[in-house]
Amino acid sequence: NIVPLEENFRSAPRILAVASRVIERNKDRLPKRLVPAAVKLASERQAYRERNALVRVAAVSPVCGAESALACAARTVEQWISEGVAPEEIAVLSRINPESNPPKALLNQLREYFATVGVLVADAPGVIRKSDPILSRLKKLANNDPQLNVADLLDGMPATAERFFNGIDPKEVQAFLYDGVERGVSTVAELYEEIEAHLSDRADNGGSSEAGVNLKTIHQAKGEEYRRVVVMYLAQGHFPPAQATDMEEERRLLYVALTRAEEEVTVIGEPGSLLMTELKESLGTDGLVFNWSGRLDSPTQGEAGLYEGCFEEDVAYSNTEPMEILQDSASDRSDAMTVAETGLMEMFEDFIKPD
């Protein structure tokens, strides 16, 4: 008999509820629904559970797209730090971060921005340097046969090392491939993009630190946990990527990203995209959606830009009356609201309209 593990000791109840609704759309899965662990948790996590913050979803304009997504992520992180959250307790997770396509390498752009404003960013531990020969071989392999399966390469060891990684210790190649498979990477193209995204050259990254904001792909964050998490960017070509053909896998990755958060999660996406639409439908009374129109070069626009700029639609909520969400959340945890949530309530009080 298969016994599903449904108790979760990490995430607050609202995060678990939304994540469960997201993954329930998948047909190829064991039926289960995550619930908070019945036992009382350690003091910090118990406080997060009792606060039970809403899942926040930022809708950015297709016109501004990734620029607004970056600004929202940066502003969110800066707000959390101003509230006293340690940088190392924060993660920004992206589905892809292709080095070969700078406009889509969102984590790299965030890293550069944080360096200019003095926000420490953590090095990704154990990543390969640009000078490492294994990366040049992987790049060649990804260019020649991007859909080649990483697990198949691992199964073909040691012949794989002799054919594709000549001159490199087969044990090093095997460990490298095994690590990719363990993180859920499927193809050599995806593995190359991920490794490129997390090169920890301090000279290139500027402001890197062992204790700073964590910028990672979702694959790299599997098995990890952070107090607060930003997930970006739910839009076609980003999440899911252009080459994605398995939407159930994309939902699984969104589920993983949401459940990395202990206390609070903000998801950034483009209205009308498939995953964004599904997420909004999954919120119920456990989340709120707000519009964002700021840019990295003027991040203070942000939520104030709801009235002008790139995006001027009304704030939208799913499956409930908008004011009910805010009022319920206030009555549940009025003494524990963040500055950002309090500001949102004040800003939207006369602005929100029911769907």
Structural notes for this entry:
With 355 residues, the chain is α/β, with parallel strands linked by helices. A six-stranded parallel beta sheet has the order 7-4-8-9-3-10, with helices on both faces. A two-stranded parallel ribbon has the order 1-2. A two-stranded parallel ribbon has the order 5-6. α1 packs antiparallel against α12 and α3 crosses α4. The N terminus and C terminus are likely disordered.
Backbone shape:
globular
Any idea what the radius of gyration is?
Answer: 21 Å
Measured distance between first and last alpha carbons: 45 Å
Count of beta strands: 10
Residue-averaged pLDDT, rounded?
75
Q: Count up the helices.
A: 15
Structural class: alpha/beta
Strand order of the largest sheet: 7-4-8-9-3-10
Task: State the low-pLDDT regions, or none.
Answer: 1-5, 205-209, 299-355
Strand content bin: 5-15%
Largest sheet: 6 strands, parallel
Task: Give the helix proportion (percent range).
Answer: 40-55%
SSE run: EHEHEHEHEHHHHHHEEHEHEHEHH
Secondary structure blueprint with pairings:
Layout: E1 7-8, H1 13-23, E2 35-36, H2 43-51, E3 55-60, H3 66-82, E4 90-94, H4 106-117, E5 121-122, H5 133-144, H6 150-155, H7 159-164, H8 170-182, H9 188-197, H10 202-205, E6 208-209, E7 214-217, H11 218-221, E8 226-234, H12 247-258, E9 261-269, H13 274-282, E10 287-292, H14 322-333, H15 339-348
Parallel strand pairs: 1-2, 3-9, 3-10, 4-7, 4-8, 5-6, 8-9
Task: Provide a short characterization of the protein structure.
This protein has 355 residues and is an alpha/beta fold. Helix content is 41%, strand content 13%. It is globular.
